[in-house]
Design brief:
This protein is of the alpha+beta class and about 300 residues long. It has three domains: about 80 residues, Uridine Diphospho-n-acetylenolpyruvylglucosamine Reductase, domain 2; about 130 residues, 2-Layer Sandwich (Uridine Diphospho-n-acetylenolpyruvylglucosamine Reductase, domain 3), CATH 3.30.465.10; about 80 residues, Alpha-Beta Complex (Uridine Diphospho-n-acetylenolpyruvylglucosamine Reductase, domain 1). It is about 30% helix and about 25% strand. The chain has eight helices and 18 strands. It starts with 6 loop residues before the first helix and ends in a 5-residue tail after the last strand.
Length: about 300
């Protein structure tokens, strides 16, 4: 009888070829930046995601969840924690006078918005240019064009220490790009959510999405980036402050503060995470000196970083 003692052996025994070792995370992030994960596990459904997380918790293995990878900067040294790649993509639309959609947390939000439009459902037009997943949107109260997750979410199912629980938008404690999850007030994993929709027509909804998409293309840069780097301070805009500080177009290595929008940092191929971090520190220092404003990161730093 073989006794499995190493946690990695137990993962292989329970999950088989879903477990990979020494996998580059750059292809799994929107910025295409980052070193390797020691262990990468892919979850294909909400039930599987819950099972994997419970197994990791039982083995006392630290982990992070990676969805669309749009609001994270993975270090060049990579990640020692287990990385769980969330590919839970189940979607169920509910027709009627008060339509809604139940969606698993690995679904890309922009794809869901366009699928809703194709069925003649309104309400998610604002999300048609949001690059991340439903899980990330629930976690960080994603928003754009006057809409946000708090305004659409009916409930989210989270895996907590008490098991699988449903939380309303009010219970999520939503604020600007934050929640009880992001603030660390609750330890939970987003499994799925139900979102409020409205009956409309494909033509009407698609027209609105096209207008939002055109505006986004005109005001935000193309290329590999993490999305908005900093949160907008109260009553102001991070991009405006960065531009006023004379930092648009500044480069370190192959990382550049976009000349089009100061709150976007662009990867011009093979960019190092440390170069992005150096630009972050330059921006925070300069904006503080010139405008007296402390910018707060919207992007999360993941992995091993030098202090």
């Amino acid at each position: 009888m073989v006794v499995l003692t190493r946690p990695i052996d137990i993962l292989y025994a329970k999950l088989g070829d879903k477990v990979k070792e020494n996998v580059s995370l750059a292809p799994y992030t929107s910025a295409r930046i980052g070193g390797p994960a020691d262990i990468l596990i892919t979850a294909e459904s909400a039930d599987e995601l819950a099972r994997i997380i419970k197994l990791l918790q039982k083995q006392e293995m630290d982990y992070i969840i990676l969805g669309g990878g749009s609001n994270v900067l993975v270090s060049d040294k990579g990640v020692r924690d287990v990385v769980v790649l969330n590919r839970a993509k189940g979607v169920r639309f509910h027709n009627g006078d008060d339509p809604s959609v139940t969606v698993e947390s690995g679904v890309v939000f922009s794809n869901l918005a366009n699928r809703s439009a194709a069925k003649g459902f309104a309400g998610l037009e604002w999300a048609a240019t949001v690059p991340g997943t439903i899980g990330g949107a629930v976690y960080g109260n994603a928003g754009a064009f006057g809409g946000d997750m708090a305004g659409n979410m009916i409930w989210a199912e989270l895996l907590t220490e008490n098991g699988r629980e449903k939380f309303t938008a009010e219970q999520m404690g939503y604020g600007y790009r934050t929640s009880i999850l992001k603030r660390g007030e609750l330890d939970g994993i987003v499994l799925c959510a139900e979102l409020r929709l409205q009956n409309s027509t494909k033509e009407v909804v698609s027209t609105t999405i096209e207008q939002f998409s055109a505006h986004r293309k005109a005001t935000q840069p193309p290329g590999a980036s993490m999305g908005s780097m900093f949160k907008n301070p109260n009553g102001d805009y991070a991009g405006k402050l960065i531009e006023a500080a004379g930092l648009k177009g500044r480069r370190i290595g192959n990382a550049e503060i976009s000349p089009l929008h100061g709150n976007f940092f662009i990867n011009h191929d093979n960019t190092k995470a440390e170069d992005i971090r150096a630009l972050i520190e330059l921006v925070m220092k300069t904006v503080k000196e010139k405008q007296g404003v402390d910018l707060e990161l919207e992007v999360e730093l993941v992995g091993e970083w030098d202090v």
